[in-house]
Amino acid sequence: MGLYPYAERFPVVRDFPEHGRPRADILREIEMMATEEDSPYHEGKISGSIYSGDEAHYEFLNEVFGHYSHANVLQRDMYPSATRFEGEIIAMTADMMHGSAVEGGTVCGVLTSGGTESLMNPLLVYREWGRERGITNPNIVMPVSAHPAFNKGAHYFGIELRRATLTDAYVADMESVASLIDENTVALIGSAGTYPHGLIDPIAELSALALERSINLHVDGCLGGFVLAWGEDLGYPVPVFDFRLPGVTSMSADTHKYGFGLKGSSVLLYRTPELRRLQYFIQPGWPGGLYTSPGMSGSRSGGIIAAAWASMVSLGREGYLAIAGDIFRTAAELVQAVQALPELTVLGEPFFNVAFTTTAESGLDIYLVNDYMASKRWRLNGLQLPPAVHFCVTRPNTQPGVVERFAADLADGVAYARERVGTAARSGALYAGTMTDQQAEAGMAWWLDATQALPPA
Ligand SMILES: Cc1ncc(COP(=O)(O)O)c(C=O)c1O
To answer: Among the four residues 128, 145, 266, 281, which has the most C-beta atoms within 10 Å?
Structure first.
């Protein structure tokens, strides 16, 4: 689908309209677009993106959202309910991440607008932590598989990012991490799990190293936090990655992913209030009054916060365990489906997000396999370095029959790739390594421009 599929179907608004349109008319148009756009996820063919997919759950959250959609939580005196929701969301997430293991029960947190903000804030905090210790040229060490929001934060805040290599099992190589640390290193990063391969870095070892070097460790559970946290209780061998490890100083987990809330919320937890304090912003001496905010956002919608809270208390531990159980089971079945094809191989040992590629012996292009899958409406995510794809399992993928359809289409996809050896894949162009970084950057800048512009007249 192109960027402007509606240019032909609806009038393009190029100037501020003189007169308003009837609400019913607008709603009809909105409903048409939203229904069509949502249809692929109902089939269970989308990797990631739609985490709950339970229509009744969404309807309930939308009702909750409606009560506070207009509320600005910056005005706490008007909306003390936001303080209740926020405090309770943080308490529930801290409990899920075993915050009680920390002596003195000091784990605390903030609610942010999403994973990116939950990764950028700790970078700022650790830069400030370094400043207090005389470090003016801070660096942070993270595995190459960590999310680009860290690169973005480092870019915004003037922090040097050092990127460690991965082992053959696609997790942080501890030797590489250790070799990059110096006296200006303020923090290490690990993920549970990583976006590309869905894997859990050796967090216990990162924790020990952070303690040994007296530096901080952020565990990025933005994607995996709210699903992996239930793995232990479900009997899966998920290693400990939370506050039970003494070197973990902060963690992120997105309520708008496997927390099943609405888009626009994430939880960022700190081991101590002293760390959290470093991200607060307080501006005295402004004619507009004393300005304070806990994080990057100014005004924030009370609706999103209320919906995140409602999602958590309506499902409870029991509800999350049940959905996570289905996700773990489906991911294991997907692993089996991939492994049943000798031309394919799974990267590492995933629990919920299954990355796979073609074997070297097969000589097949994984992007050609992905082309075929896309023609069958599967939306997998393309990876690079090495070329691969992943299927991040969410609740809609756990419906009966999805794995069976996937397995059958995947076998056909391999046959399709075999028939086309040597031809260029459509889906992998960006990842095929034929572009220079400059070409890729120029291409993506063009794309970003286009996503914020009108279709050509
Ligand atoms: C591991 C990980 N961290 C952080 C993020 C960033 O989250 P967001 O897109 O909500 O900013 C993602 C997004 O997929 C992720 O997979």
So the answer is: 266
